[in-house]
Amino acid sequence: MSRELVNEICAAQPGSEWSDPWGGGHDCWKIGGKTFAVTGTQGTHVSVKTDGEEIANFLIETGIGMRAPYLHRSWVALPLDSAPDELAHRIRQSYRIVRSGLPKKIQAGLPPVV
């Protein structure tokens, strides 16, 4: 899977916004101002949020992902050449987790999830 395909999946999430907050070529995808996926300047991995540290540790222990640098332990970095369905699932799941954690007022102003 390529960086472009990751960006397509992220852009398809309702209300998602792209930014490069640190400069230098990061792809940072947000919903309601909160990050749900980020690809660094190297472009080898996409970091996504999981349901918690246990899930993140499971993904790391099974070799699906690795510890996401600079982020909380509930985040994992998945190689861009991961199985496309696994990568798409993890990006969508990260989006849902982050979106559900937003204040209800912000959630109410977002496009509906299909």
Automatic annotation (TrEMBL):
Alphabetical list of Gene3D superfamilies matching this protein: 3.90.1150.30
SUPFAM superfamilies hit by this protein: YjbR-like (SSF142906)
Superkingdom: Bacteria
InterPro entries in alphabetical order: YjbR-like_sf, YjbR/MT2646/Rv2570-like
Protein name per UniProt: MmcQ/YjbR family DNA-binding protein
Organism: Paracoccus aurantius
GO molecular function, one term: DNA binding
Keyword entries, A-Z: DNA-binding
